[in-house]
Write a structure and sequence with these properties.
Blueprint: H1 2-9, H2 17-20, H3 25-36, H4 47-66, E1 70-72, E2 75-77, H5 81-109, H6 124-141, H7 147-170, H8 175-181, H9 186-207, H10 210-228, H11 233-253, H12 259-263, H13 266-272, H14 276-289
Antiparallel strand pairs: 1-2
Pfam families: DUF2301 (PF10063)
Protein name: Integral membrane protein
Keywords: Membrane, Transmembrane, Transmembrane helix
Length: 294
């Protein structure tokens, strides 16, 4: 009997809360039952143990940051699994967009005509659509406190996608080559890149990243320079190369940030999701607890 109790309280027990973090309720309940009955089943062998391990593996990323509680403007909050999925989806969308931009630019610059790889030019439009779709996912998942700003970025993206798709359907050239050789085509795809500028501004202001500041200036400089014809071919090529490289760097460096950084103050979004009555009730409670802040 004493041995069973010692085994269940041992730090070596895989379902001991002190060593396993946020395990499922089922795992905790089974362990507690085993300990009460003083049975040597603390290892939870078999299907139950496998269930607990799988559940822990799936939620490990969320538990790592979700175990910490942060103070927000409207209360405490923590990171959960849905937050992790949203942030990773946001970053994955940026990665897809940057990769598509890089691939299309390289295809446009590559001397493929007459070679066995000339067929790759037929993929330029599909790659461009894939990149636009990835960026659209990011704009859907991005965390911005002011909803009208987020909707504006999404509308700009939609306008750019419609304009770009129209060029793909009506013009024989791949869209990248058509825009490169027709200055006025910037009007069709420009709104999407205006959304890129907006995201770069948001990321630069929130995190002070130098590549975001560079992207904020490079994007309009490249498009307006091409539209107006004020930039010669050589400098324009350099601007395009810098824009592509900065976009790839921006997407890659997103993965170096903590998940919570891309969430922002979650309590703000939770507050915005409340009804007016719930908001007033919460504010009244906070005034009573912390009158010096109001």
């Amino acid at each position: 009997m004493m041995a069973s109790q010692a085994a269940c309280s041992s730090s070596r027990c895989p379902c001991n809360p002190s060593t396993s973090g946020r395990l499922s309720a089922r795992c905790h309940a089974s362990t507690l039952t085993a300990c009460i009955r003083k049975l040597p089943t603390c290892n939870l062998s078999g299907s139950l143990s496998l269930h607990c391990q799988r559940r822990r593996g799936l939620s490990l990323r969320a538990a790592t940051e979700g175990s910490e509680v942060y103070k927000g403007a409207f209360g405490e909050w923590s990171v959960d699994e849905s937050d992790v999925k949203e942030v990773l989806g946001y970053r994955a969308g940026l990665s897809v967009a940057a990769a598509a931009l890089l691939m299309d630019t390289l295809l446009m610059w590559s001397p493929l005509d007459g070679s066995s790889l000339a067929f790759l030019r037929n993929l330029e439009n599909a790659i461009a659509l894939l990149g636009a779709a990835g960026f659209g996912v990011s704009l859907y998942l991005i965390h911005i406190y002011v909803t009208p700003i987020k909707r504006t970025l999404q509308l700009l993206w939609a306008a750019g996608v419609i304009g770009g798709t129209t060029l793909m359907v009506t013009q024989p050239q791949p869209i990248t080559e058509y825009v490169a050789s027709h200055q006025g085509a910037v009007w069709a795809v420009g709104p999407l890149f205006a959304a890129v500028t907006g995201v770069a501004f948001k990321e630069g202001v929130c995190y002070g990243k130098p590549e975001c500041a560079a992207l904020f200036f490079l994007t309009p400089a490249l498009l307006l320079g091409h539209l107006s014809g004020a930039v010669a071919e050589g400098p324009e090529t350099a601007l395009l190369a810098a824009f592509v490289a900065t976009s790839v760097l921006f997407a890659a460096r997103k993965y170096t940030q903590a998940i919570k950084d891309d969430i922002g103050d979650k309590s703000v979004f939770q507050f915005q999701a409340m009804s007016e009555e719930e908001q007033e009730r919460l504010l009244a409670e906070r005034r009573q607890r912390q009158p010096q802040e109001y």
